[in-house]
Amino acid sequence: MDNLKPYVQQHKDRFINELIEILKIPSISADSAFNQDVIDMAEAVKNALEKAGCDSVEICETPGYPIVYGEKIIDKNLPTVLVYGHYDVQPPDPLNLWDSPPFEPVIKKTDIHPEGAIFARGACDDKGQMYMHVKALEYMTSSNNLPCNVKFMIEGEEEVGSESLAWFVKQNQDKLANDVILISDTGMISNQQPSITTGLRGLSYVEVEVTGANRDLHSGLYGGAVANPINVLSKMIASLHDENNHITIPGFYDKVEELSIEERAEMAKAPFSLEQYKKELDIDAVYGEKGYTTNERNSIRPTLDVNGIWGGYTGEGAKTVIASKAFAKISMRLVPHQNWEEITELFKNHFESIAPEGVRVSVKPHHGGQGYVTPIDSIGYKAAAKAYKDSFGTAPIPQRSGGSIPIVALFEQELKSKTILMGFGLDTDAIHSPNEHFGVFNYLKGIETIPLFYKYYVELKS
Amino acid sequence: MDNLKPYVQQHKDRFINELIEILKIPSISADSAFNQDVIDMAEAVKNALEKAGCDSVEICETPGYPIVYGEKIIDKNLPTVLVYGHYDVQPPDPLNLWDSPPFEPVIKKTDIHPEGAIFARGACDDKGQMYMHVKALEYMTSSNNLPCNVKFMIEGEEEVGSESLAWFVKQNQDKLANDVILISDTGMISNQQPSITTGLRGLSYVEVEVTGANRDLHSGLYGGAVANPINVLSKMIASLHDENNHITIPGFYDKVEELSIEERAEMAKAPFSLEQYKKELDIDAVYGEKGYTTNERNSIRPTLDVNGIWGGYTGEGAKTVIASKAFAKISMRLVPHQNWEEITELFKNHFESIAPEGVRVSVKPHHGGQGYVTPIDSIGYKAAAKAYKDSFGTAPIPQRSGGSIPIVALFEQELKSKTILMGFGLDTDAIHSPNEHFGVFNYLKGIETIPLFYKYYVELKS
Does A112 touch chain B (CB under 8 A)? Predict the structure, then answer.
């Protein structure tokens, strides 16, 4: 593959421009107002896969948004790699915090990205990382360097729980048959120190509703005499953590694996500066579960965070009202062995049980997924490690991520194959936040690294 | 005044239609988008006062919304009544809970209002009750039954703190000189059992902001490792009440007067059905400060309620984000002797002091006002009591209200005169809530009762 780097250099401007075009499509799966844009984005992915050399590409209808499936089968006797990615994006709000419109991509230099970064919603999560695989395929097919079969499965509901994907995978086990699954939807430690994610947290996402009186009330006439749903919700949320920031839901920690001293010591070797971390977030102190380091808190420990809260008067000025209802969206990150459906049930039962007299509480489960850990002695992991070492000149470090890609556990269960998480993003890319971006260096480096994975995977496999 | 009731009967349709016209103007002082409507409403009040017989009416500019001032001076040696009211209204949201548009008044019968009630924002608070005085004046001038001088001062910022009114009153003490102040901006026990409000609670209204990291964060990558402003805000709000629902702010109760057993026994005589109260609000239990009854909790005791809370993702679907900021609007109802500025300071210092590491907290005072108690042995109170007895056939009961009309304390301080709160609304009128309404019976009964107050006041005074 001596012509790999030259090929990427020669075509890099086109690669960047093609990505910019698909970043202009506001494919926000969480908001039905963008329904047509999500559909248009699926179409764009189909065209891209066809151009890149897939033999057949189809837009597969589902109960929700379609799944784009494409494949290039060169020899039934050779291994098959299944590439998964998603073409939907997170909502961009709060819009006022974006320096440039989320769906009008711009390239700007930053301290971490001297070669420039592409700023747009989805630049990193996951359009940019997904498109690296499309361009890597283009290289391999056009230069006759594809050493095995490849299948693409790109979905449009990852940011809202991948329900249709689960349905699709269960329906199409033969079609999706593969030897290893490749996903780029995670990050690495830095551009100087690549890493491969070997663990993901599970997720349980719920919405809660607290109802007091049957209407909004005047806070003067009723204040102090009836339960205020916002005060009550605040009390209930506050009670979910104790003074050590342990989660108080009975049974929540029952299946959490405690890592050994050795494992924790191994983790602690990853380069990390607490000062830099606080400076970059502009906080005076970190905060979390007693007895664990920052890197442990956001990777090997389960968490509970309120992702949104609302109730009463939130407009300009003042309104002296006691709201009839208060709401919150709450998500729990889970570690391997915690079952998300079980945790959701534990949460629901507990939260409803702590409702005081005078209010009614309901918990609506949103979605969730299991955690995942991949062994570092598998052929897939070894091939990925060699690929990173070649392209970065540095061996990657295995790392547990705090994020969740719920369907990874599903893939193992339904397709019986392991997933390799070849991520090229950085924590500073602000995914899910205003000013999300993806380094030009990272994008091109990903396109350079992926073909090497195919090469080494087939070599090690035979 | 034998022709009083016949006059009201004869003109009642016109009285109702005139009120409906001014209810169509969305004079929402809290929202600058309605700026022009508030101005238009001031103009409408000016025209109404002129038609009703005021000699001179002026729209007085202020730093904020104008104050409409009108007067009819018949004899400098006779007493002068100053009528206060407000022409601004509360924001109507949540709009989706209104059965008919808030600014398209409709008359509908209800169990409590067999003669029908006018449904619209401001129907009771305070356009309807303010307009009763305009129509009472019309009767007195047109039938030559005005026994003394009268001045009107109708403001447009009551729902946002009456700042300009305070400024105006201090500037115009001579112009506003009076013997007694009359306000209809409160309620009574029922249409069968009138009552006169003898006490009001003070108010302190603040907005709080909790800031964590400098941007929204991915809850997977940062969850559990940094302070979540929404979780923190919930904890801080929860800590403002102890297990007995006492407010925990140091010094908060220092100046609260404890009523005697006798006074509390007297209060307890007011007809009240807890079952009816719960049924009407559709709640299974009341909630509040330990050791006090429902009627005590919302009248003689100070309270703290969150009036609005917001932060993070509140849209459709799910977003796994840790918000950079969380906000709440919080109001405290105060009892006589509690100084609102002092309480605001106590709140600010306490709330900022309990902020945990990892977040920044700021408290922005909105507005406030002192509580008030009026003696029941004054000429003004006696005249009002006789007027109610005549028109309702039942003597009114003196009652403390949980609501606040901050400027009443200001009037006593600046104008050295007592205020009589002749309210004709009911707790069920849903002021500040969706489907606010005002009974046709109450509206017309008010117009019938007010001229009797003038009559008896002048008689008792001479």
Answer: no
Task: Give me the residue spans of the domains in chain B.
Answer: 4-200+371-461, 202-256+302-368
The residues in A 120-139 lying below 8 A from B, measured between CB atoms, are none
CB contact under 8 A, A30 and B221: no
Contact A301 B224 (CB under 8 A): yes
**Closest to B233 in 3D by CA, of B345, B324, B142, B113:** B324
CB A332 within 8 A of CB B258: no
CA distance to A245, B118, B158, per residue, from B428 (Å): 43, 13, 21
**For chain A, how long is the longest CA-to-CA vector?**
79
A/B interface, count of CB pairs below 8 Å: 378
- C-alpha distances in angstroms, B317 versus A28, A86, B13, B194? 11, 17, 50, 50
The C-alpha atoms of residue A17 and residue A23 are separated, in whole angstroms, by 10
What are the tens digits of pLDDT across the range B56-106? 999 999 999 999 999 999 999 999 999 999 999 999 988 999 999 999 999
Query: Are B305 and A231 in contact (CB < 8 Å)?
Result: yes
Cβ atoms B135, B143 nearer than 8 A? no
In whole angstroms, give the CA distance from residue B106 to residue B180. 35
Cis before B94 (ω within 30):
yes
Two tokens at B331? 């109001």
* pLDDT confidence of residue B52: 98
Angle of helix B127-142 relative to helix B440-461, nearest 10 degrees, comes to 50
Q: Is B283's Cβ below 8 Å from some Cβ in A? A: yes
State the residue for tokens 């339960």: A227
Q: Tell whether B369 is within 8 A of chain A (Cβ).
A: no
Substitution target from B204, B296, B309 for chain A, most A beta carbons within 10 A: B309
pLDDT band at B399 (very low <50, low <70, confident <90, very high): confident
- CB contact B205 to A (< 8 Å): yes
Q: For position A65, what pLDDT does the model report?
A: 97
> A31: cis peptide before it, omega within 30°?
no
Architecture of domain A202-256+302-368: 2-Layer Sandwich (3.30)
Q: Is the pLDDT of residue B406 over 80?
A: no
What pLDDT score does B270 carry?
A: 80
CA distance linking residue A36 with residue A24, whole number of Å: 13
What residues in A contact B214, CB-CB < 8 Å?
Answer: 281-283
Between helices B35-52 and B127-142, what is the axis angle to 10°?
A: 20
The whole-angstrom distance between A428's CA and the closest CA on chain B is 10
Torsion angle, CA of B112/B114/B115/B119, rounded to 10 degrees? 50
- Looking at residue B262, its pLDDT comes to 85
Residues 6+ apart with CB under 8 A from A220: A320, B201, B203, B298, B333, B401, B402, B403, B404
The number of angstroms, rounded, from the C-alpha of B43 to the middle of its chain's C-alpha atoms is: 22
Q: Which helix (H) or strand (E) holds A164?
A: helix A163-171
Question: B357 in contact with A at a CB cutoff of 8 Å?
Answer: yes
Per residue in A180-214, pLDDT tens? 999 999 999 999 999 999 888 999 999 999 999 99
Contact B213 A241 (CB under 8 A): no
Q: Smallest Cβ distance to A220: which of B201, B321, B433?
A: B201
pLDDT for A177 equals 97
Using CB atoms, pick whichever of B233, B318, B427 lies closest to residue A221: B427
Question: Does the domain made of A4-200+371-461 have the CATH classification 3.10.180.10?
Answer: no
Pick the residue from chain A with its C-alpha nearest to B404: A220
CB proximity under 8 Å: A 165-194 to B? 187
**Chain A residues touching residue B310 (CB < 8 angstroms):** 309-311, 314
Residue B312 contacts A, CB cutoff 8 Å: yes
Residue in A with minimal Cα distance to B432: A218
